[in-house]
Amino acid sequence: MGTPRETRQAQAETVVDRLEAEYPDSTISLRYSNRLELLIAVILSAQCTDERVNQETKKLFEKYDGPEDYANAAQDDLAEDLNSITYYNNKAKYIRSACETILEDHDGEVPDTMDELTDLSGVGRKTANVVLQHGHDVVEGIVVDTHVQRLSQRLGLTEEERPERIEEELIEIVPEDYWQQFTHLCIDHGRAVCTARNPDCGDCVLADICPSEKGDSEIDLAAGEPW
Q1: What architecture is domain 8-26+143-226?
Q2: Contact yes or no for 190/145 (Cβ under 8 A)
Q3: Closest CA to 64 of 99, 110, 15
Q4: 214 catalytic, yes or no?
Q5: Per the residue annotation, which of 112, 119, 145, 208 is the catalytic one?
Q6: What percent of the chain has pLDDT over 90?
């Protein structure tokens, strides 16, 4: 069992420093060329791997050009184009509806505020944060995906369960200049080392400060269950 820093803020700062050294080129893995493509890719990425999304959007973005194409597409046709994506029927509905709203209320442009983005179909705070950060260079929060949630809990940065509450706590302890990068660092480390089912604690740069470290700790703080 690792020994966390004395405060959560000190723990968060150490996590950022070490992960940044470990993953110096960490960045978003979704592929897109404009704000609408980013929005669609993030909607599709819910409970689906970025790798799979990138495979499908390569074809999708060649076929559809602009919000008009998506808004005017037949539901069955768009769903068929997304049929290897999880929940593709629902996501096709979200994309069509979001594009209709973008056309009707935002002159065909992806909006640049949290409130306007979260008013779009299929867009919650996590998706809106990604679009703001990478589409508009606006950073007003931390994207909490499954990797961020798991690592934050395992590392003792939060005991919250809901992403919204986790974000609120992380904002208080993660240096503001790293709010955007914190997510990418957690994703890279979560994929490479701190996996959901069998984390490689023996090869983890955070093991000595991690209260979930499997060497001595009996509990996975993310799952709340024994290893």
Answers
A1: Orthogonal Bundle (1.10)
A2: no
A3: 99
A4: no
A5: 145
A6: 94
